[in-house]
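Researcher: I'm preparing a figure for a lab meeting and need a structural model of a single chain. I don't have an experimental structure, so a prediction will have to do for now. The sequence is pasted below. Please return the structure as tokens so I can convert it later.
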Amino acid sequence: MPLPEHAASLERLLSRAAEECESKQGMWFGRGLPQALRSAIDLHGEGAKQAPTEIAFIEVSAVSPQGRAVTNADPCALDCPVVGLSHTTVEQLGSLVCPRGDTGVQITRLICPFAVFDFSPEGVRVREVRHGLTAADLQSKLSTTLWSGPDLKELGTH
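Model: Understood. Here is the structure written out token by token.
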């Protein structure tokens, strides 16, 4: 049986990732965490429809500040935004977001149990952070500059 904090962390991750699916018809799910997301969505009767893929989900083990993700999935034939999912902890953030070169799958967003990050050529921007954490807490774990702004929200409060 999973530890209560692990189960709560996974639930927070999957709930937030499910929000990305709102108003989307076609979805693509890689292996691992994305399959858990697919099951959660299907359980609520909101599964993917037969439609052109509008969003893809992959599990990532590392991502560069430019959004190039190390993954076991291959959504390269898809022409849609790719969202990375990771069940890492705040303490592991520095090994998750780190310089890895220009190889890997390009992601636009990364959802973790403690934060949501967007990736662009300008770098990493934190969009949401779990209650009790700040962007400064996350920055202290990273070797790259983390951007945030006045639109920073508490995780899961859309």
